[in-house]
């Protein structure tokens, strides 16, 4: 830990030394912008200040209500150029140098001449960096001088009001940007990074930020949207990446993509192959890994060092979008898009785990499992979406197809010890071949046409169908130490076919205002779900003696499961409103839903004991109280208190499972008398947004308290060989509480950026369960905290520091206060330094420390470092050398807990390697 | 700009409509023609237009706290303010001290009637306030004391007491559901009788549907300086009329540059039926209404109303009548006369945009803006080191941004 602190101190001190080495007194410059011909003070005029020697933009602002401006903290002793601009006027330019000792300089009047009164050939217009256009804040890209290879993200980093966080989130004046659009439309599926880290800054005309209301009845229910408006000659282009790397230990990493776009169509093709734990679940994730980004410190390109096993990943796909109305307004869309993604994963995993289950105060069951797993999985998905959005109507269709294949082999050896003495041993070998074919369909229609009797009419239909075929071969050996003669040997094959189909239909009427009931609004909603699942399984045992397969009639079965779920509801809503103009706006909303759930499930099987037909009906009310408070020019708060009741119905595998004797250490016996459980949850949330300055903080808070009646919990019986038979039983007394919060504070000063974010989560649960027929309660407390500090100085330095801590503590009240606990800490320091425009160095160090009541504390450090050189025109080519896990200390420690069980151990993980990679980024943005 | 679309649908047969044929009067006039080009307007220091400027913060306490001045009349030493947000009419002294509150929830004798005050008018001659609530009207003194209650004699959207018990009323309410009678948009009553009517229209078949009748907020009548006389303006009409108990004449005839003048077919074109608002949105340079007309000596104050920001930040003017010099009120430059504070919130507020000048009385013009706006202007002008009157300085020290709005009392010069 000491050396980490030393590094921290070095990095913290470096910028200070830099400033102290060349102290520059700061000064202030004032002035007024005026139209002398009409004697108008020009309010809201844009003032920009540049360094004369290199035209570097040092700052910008809008003139105040008296046409005045004031720049503070400007460097003294060097020539500065001030440009005043205003729509309809020619620019006024003044050059000045602040006295070496700083102080204040009054530039008096900037006299702007109406461009209507001047001949065009004499008009020289500069581009103002910022202006308000109605309710839209606009930043002009051309006003910011950046390297020719800069992308939109580099531009955003230059804008005072904008903060780009390490995880890619963008906030403007503290409010998170929910959507980034390009020319008013989603860009390659709407992924923020694809737009901000690929589009060149030189193709951008303006960055526009505006609020978009998401709920017409609620002025606070709005999100902030960023639109990147491209220059008229740059609305088409192509970009991509092709790269490959090879490293020690046969590590390889190759990827490639090409994306093309024009005002009507977008098309992307991408692929990747590696064995460095970098994978992607869809095209967006794959493309996100291949952006052109040119600055900033990010961790998302790093291999996942926590991931189990050696993983080979091959993935690729295509994404396509066609816009039928490319010139439609912001509230209108007519898009057809599709997405194909295929991935193949091969895993070679090893683990050595030990789980400790508290049986009694003086008795623990310790089970050790050493296993090795080989998995080869291919997943293919195709989805399409047609979306037609008009100002008061939304319609979309989303068909999808899926094909998966899985092939896996697993071997493990197990042992069980009670009070420190081994009671039994066992081993298991299994192999599985599985295929899945699925299809889905979703249709949605919503009408919010004002003036119609039923507004907000909504209809949604979902269909999911699938066919899964599995062949499983499993061989198990079990040897009790005390009675070796009772040993068991199984060699069993399963041929299973499962076909399912889910239909869900949700219909909701709009709000109908009843004046006679004080303006209460009524609406009706109904959810209808129909599920069918046909399962056909043939199980054969291979007897060790003869070797001929024999059908196992206890496990061979054919069954059909159907369920019907209906939840009709009547909602009542009433809102209150209080406002004092220019002071505050308070809004209350009371909403209650009287809902009833009718659920029926039926299982028909050739195994008679599995046949059942159960019906349930239970009220599922919900209620919400909302209070929104906006204090003009100060802050806005949003409080929400909700109550919701939900039902959990037992599944067939909990009621009448096929008790498979091959599961030696955990044998699920089921419980046909199991009743449904009812969950009551009260949730409180608070969101606060400060409105005063860009540097103000925002915070969020959420708390939930819950109680579950007839909680479906484990009742386990462990015999003297360490084998556990598990029943599911109902027990009252399950209670839980969750608390989470987040505080965000971005700060920009001079040319420095300091972002801080604190996130905390706490979960408390009281879980009843039974061990050997004795009722126990586990009172568990887990909490995680992450503090992130991001610092950047101009484009040269960026440092991220994060500290996370996770705690788990479980106290067994029924077992004489036995306590299980574990703790995981991670301290991370990431640094990126740019040495010029083409060379950069990055390094990150993560110190992990795991401690548990089951083992001594383990600490290890993962240190990665890399150097990247960009070359060719436009920095389109890249060569990168990176060293991963330099200290060769990566150890995947497993340290988790739940209830009365604590699991610890290790898994094989990625360890030290060095890699050299090259990449080329084809980029062309042109007129269309 | 706050716009009102007159969509009233009254089922009552108006007395005014029945009597129209007998009392329809001609507008007599020898109007002064004014040629006004907003592009030729100038900025000017506050002191070149106003002799004095006084900032009067309205007292803020639990009872007097209100939202926004919807309309205000000044009667002698009192500010009579209607606030829709708190459903009240509040009476403040000329120094801003809170005096009385007439709450919509406690109207009438003993305060037993609960309702919503829809509008109010004031009669300076009799120092009375008339509040309208539903079909009732309540009379109060300027001391806040209840005088009497009456049922509504006439339905109108706005009214002005002309003296001699005559009241000018404006109502434009045609519709196919009404009998085909002739009504007057402007009519004058005395007691229960209509004594004059102007601007007749066919109630059942008028070419301009109420949804197309767009005018600026509560702005038909403006005190004309002479006792009992008011300037009257109407949508799509570039004349300023003067009405009194004795009759009506055309005071000014305004001529605008072509780009601001409504096209000749605007009132007749059937294609524009029910879409005139959208048409104006698409043509933001067209002036659709002249409002806020006040005269002081040789100065004429007025507003040219446009939709969708056509003349934003340059729509309110003062004209020196003998020279034709035009000064933009939006662009007045704060100086020592205003303690370097803007006299309107046109730059970044909404009050002047929505309400312009609230009233004119005894040689003064009145406008207002929010306390938070005044605090902002004070901060912006800090470098000027202005000297504030003791009361205002104290308010800056002790007041808070959530206080009641501030009245700005302006005494116009007689000449620029």
Key words describing this protein structure:
heterodimer, A: 928 residues, mainly beta, 36-stranded mixed β-sheet, 8-stranded mixed β-sheet, 5 helices, B: 416 residues, Methylamine Dehydrogenase, Chain H, 5-stranded mixed β-sheet, 6 helices, 11% helix, globular, disordered N terminus
What would your notes on this structure say?
The complex is a heterodimer of chains A (928) and B (416). Chain A is built from five helices and 52 strands. Chain A has a 36-stranded mixed sheet that branches. In chain A, strands 9, 10, 11, 12, 13, 14, 15 and 16 form an eight-stranded mixed sheet that branches. In chain A, β24 and β25 (421-447) form a beta hairpin. In chain B, 11% of the residues lie in helices and 40% in strands. Chain B has a five-stranded mixed sheet with strand order 2-21-20-19-18, with no helix packed on it. Chain B has a five-stranded mixed sheet with strand order 3-25-24-23-22. The longest helix of chain B is centred in the C-terminal third of the chain and has 10 residues, at 371-380. Mean pLDDT of chain B is 87; it is low at 1-24. Chains A and B meet through β2 of A and β3, β25 and α5 of B.
């Amino acid at each position: 830990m000491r050396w980490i602190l030393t590094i921290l101190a070095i990095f913290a001190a470096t910028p200070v030394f830099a400033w102290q080495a060349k102290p520059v007194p700061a000064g202030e410059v004032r002035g007024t912008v005026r139209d002398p011909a009409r004697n108008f003070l020009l309010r809201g005029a844009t003032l920009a200040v540049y360094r004369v020697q290199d035209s570097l933009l040092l700052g910008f602002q809008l003139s105040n209500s008296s046409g005045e401006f004031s720049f503070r903290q400007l460097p003294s002793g060097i020539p500065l150029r001030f440009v005043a601009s205003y729509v309809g006027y020619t620019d006024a330019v003044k050059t000045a140098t602040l006295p070496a000792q700083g102080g204040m300089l009054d530039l008096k009047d900037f006299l702007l001449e109406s461009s209507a009164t001047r001949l065009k050939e004499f008009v020289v217009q500069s581009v103002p960096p910022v202006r308000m256009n109605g309710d839209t804040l606009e930043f002009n890209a051309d006003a910011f001088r950046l390297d020719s290879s800069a992308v939109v993200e580099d531009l955003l980093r230059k804008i005072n009001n904008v903060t780009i966080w390490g995880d890619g989130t963008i906030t403007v004046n503290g409010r998170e940007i929910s959507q980034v659009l390009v020319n008013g439309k989603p860009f390659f599926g709407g992924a923020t990074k694809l737009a901000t880290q690929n589009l060149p800054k030189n193709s951008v005309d303006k960055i526009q930020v505006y609020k978009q209301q998401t709920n017409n009845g609620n002025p606070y229910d709005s999100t902030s949207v960023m639109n990147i408006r491209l220059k008229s000659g740059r609305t088409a282009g192509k970009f991509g990446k092709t790269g490959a790397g090879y490293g020690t230990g046969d590590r390889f990493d190759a990827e490639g993509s090409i994306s093309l776009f024009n005002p009507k169509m977008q098309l992307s093709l991408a692929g990747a192959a590696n064995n460095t734990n970098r994978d992607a679940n869809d095209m967006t994730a794959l493309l996100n890994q291949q952006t052109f980004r040119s600055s900033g410190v990010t961790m998302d390109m790093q291999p996942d060092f926590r991931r189990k096993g050696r993983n080979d990943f091959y993935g690729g796909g295509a994404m396509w979008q066609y816009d039928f109305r490319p010139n439609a307004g912001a509230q209108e869309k007519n898009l057809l898009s599709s997405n194909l993604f295929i991935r193949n994963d091969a895993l070679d995993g090893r683990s050595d785990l030990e789980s400790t289950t508290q049986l009694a105060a003086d008795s623990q069951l310790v089970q050790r499992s050493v296993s090795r797993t080989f998995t080869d999985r291919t997943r293919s998905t195709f989805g399409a979406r047609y979306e037609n959005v008009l100002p008061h109507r939304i319609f979309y269709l989303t068909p999808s197809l899926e094909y998966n294949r899985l092939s896996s082999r697993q071997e493990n050896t197990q042992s069980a010890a009670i009070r420190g003495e081994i009671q039994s041993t066992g081993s298991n070998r299994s192999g599985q071949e599985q295929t899945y074919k699925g299809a889905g369909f979703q249709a949605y229609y919503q009408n919010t046409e004002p003036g119609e009797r039923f507004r907000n009419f909504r209809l949604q239909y979902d269909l999911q169908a699938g066919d899964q075929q599995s062949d499983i071969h499993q061989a198990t050996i079990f040897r009790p130490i005390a009675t070796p003669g009772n040993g068991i040997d199984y060699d069993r094959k399963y041929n299973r076919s499962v076909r399912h189909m889910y239909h869900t239909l949700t219909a909701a009427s709009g709000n109908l205002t009843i004046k006679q009931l004080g303006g209460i609004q009524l609406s009706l909603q109904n959810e209808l779900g129909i599920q069918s699942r046909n399962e056909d399984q043939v199980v054969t045992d291979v007897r060790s003696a003869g070797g001929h397969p024999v059908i196992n009639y206890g496990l061979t079965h054919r069954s059909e499961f159907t369920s019907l779920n209906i939840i009709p509801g009547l909602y009542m809503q009433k809102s209150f409103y209080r406002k004092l103009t220019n002071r505050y706006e308070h809004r209350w909303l009371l909403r209650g839903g009287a809902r009833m759930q009718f659920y029926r499930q039926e299982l028909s099987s050739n195994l008679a004991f599995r046949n059942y037909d159960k019906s349930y009906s239970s009220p599922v009310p919900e209620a919400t109280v909302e209070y929104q408070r906006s204090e003009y020019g100060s802050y806005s708060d949003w409080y929400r208190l909700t109550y919701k009741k939900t039902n959990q119905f037992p599944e067939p595998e909990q009621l009448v499972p096929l008790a498979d004797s091959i599961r030696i250490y955990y044998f699920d016996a089921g419980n046909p008398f199991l009743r449904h459980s009812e969950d009551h949850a009260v949730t409180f949330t608070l969101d606060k947004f400060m409105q005063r300055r860009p540097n103000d903080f925002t915070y969020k808070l959420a708390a939930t308290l819950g109680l579950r009646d007839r909680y479906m919990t484990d009742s386990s019986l462990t015999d003297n060989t360490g084998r556990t038979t598990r029943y599911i039983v109902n027990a009252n007394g399950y209670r839980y509480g969750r608390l989470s919060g987040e505080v965000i504070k971005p700060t920009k000063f001079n040319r420095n950026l300091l972002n801080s974010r604190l996130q905390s989560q706490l979960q408390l649960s009281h879980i009843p369960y039974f061990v050997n027929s004795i009722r126990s309660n586990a009172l568990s407390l887990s909490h995680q905290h992450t503090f992130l500090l991001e610092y950047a100085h101009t484009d040269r330095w960026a440092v991220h520091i994060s500290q996370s801590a996770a705690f788990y503590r479980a106290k067994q009240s029924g077992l004489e206060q036995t306590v299980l606990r574990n703790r995981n800490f991670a301290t991370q320091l990431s640094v990126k330094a740019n040495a010029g425009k083409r060379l950069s160095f990055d390094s990150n160090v993560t110190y992990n420390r795991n401690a548990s009541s089951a083992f001594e504390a383990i600490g290890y450090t993962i240190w990665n470092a890399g150097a990247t050189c960009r070359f060719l025109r436009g920095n389109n080519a890249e060569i990168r050398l990176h060293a991963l896990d330099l200290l060769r200390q990566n150890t995947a420690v497993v340290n988790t807990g739940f209830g009365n069980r604590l699991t610890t151990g290790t898994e094989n993980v990625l360890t030290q390697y060095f890699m050299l990679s090259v990449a080329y980024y084809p980029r062309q943005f042109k007129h269309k | 700009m706050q716009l009102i679309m007159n969509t009233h649908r009254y089922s009552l047969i108006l007395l005014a409509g029945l009597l129209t044929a007998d009392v329809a009067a001609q507008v007599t006039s020898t109007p002064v023609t004014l040629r006004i080009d907003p592009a030729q307007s100038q900025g000017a220091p506050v002191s070149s237009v106003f002799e004095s400027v006084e900032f009067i913060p309205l007292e803020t306490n639990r009872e007097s706290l209100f939202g926004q001045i919807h309309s205000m009349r000044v009667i002698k030493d009192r500010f009579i303010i209607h606030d829709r947000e708190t459903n009240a009419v509040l009476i403040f002294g000329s120094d801003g001290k809170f005096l009385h509150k007439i709450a919509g929830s406690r109207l009438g004798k003993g305060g037993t009637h609960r309702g919503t005050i829809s509008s109010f008018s004031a009669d300076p001659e009799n120092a009375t306030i008339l509040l309208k609530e539903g079909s009732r009207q309540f009379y109060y003194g300027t001391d806040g004391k209840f005088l009497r209650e009456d049922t509504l004699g006439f339905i109108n959207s706005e009214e002005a007491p002309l003296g001699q018990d005559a009241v000018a009323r404006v109502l434009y309410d045609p519709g196919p559901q009404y009998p085909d009678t002739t009504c007057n948009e402007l009519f004058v009553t005395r007691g229960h009788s209509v004594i004059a009517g102007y601007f007749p229209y066919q109630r059942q078949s008028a070419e301009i549907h109420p949804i197309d009748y767009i005018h600026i907020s509560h702005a038909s009548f403006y005190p004309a300086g002479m006792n009992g006389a008011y300037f009257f303006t109407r949508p799509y009409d570039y004349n300023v009329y003067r009405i009194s108990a004795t009759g009506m004449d055309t005071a000014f005839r305004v001529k605008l540059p072509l780009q601001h003048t409504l096209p000749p077919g605007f009132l007749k074109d059937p294609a524009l039926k029910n879409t005139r608002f959208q048409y104006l949105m698409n043509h933001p340079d067209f002036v659709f209404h002249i409002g806020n007309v006040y005269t002081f000596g040789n100065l004429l104050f007025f507003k040219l109303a446009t939709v969708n920001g056509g003349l934003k930040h340059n729509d309110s003017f003062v004209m020196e009548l003998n020279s034709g010099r035009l000064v933009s009120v939006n662009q007045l430059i704060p100086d020592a006369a205003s303690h370097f504070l803007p006299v309107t919130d046109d730059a970044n507020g909404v009050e002047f945009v929505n309400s312009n000048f609230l009233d004119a009385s005894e040689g003064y013009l009145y406008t207002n803006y929010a306390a938070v706006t005044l605090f902002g202007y004070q901060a912006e002008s800090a470098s000027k080191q202005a000297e504030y009157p003791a009361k205002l300085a104290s308010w800056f020290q002790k007041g808070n941004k959530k206080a009641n709005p501030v009245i700005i009392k302006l005494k116009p010069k007689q000449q620029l």
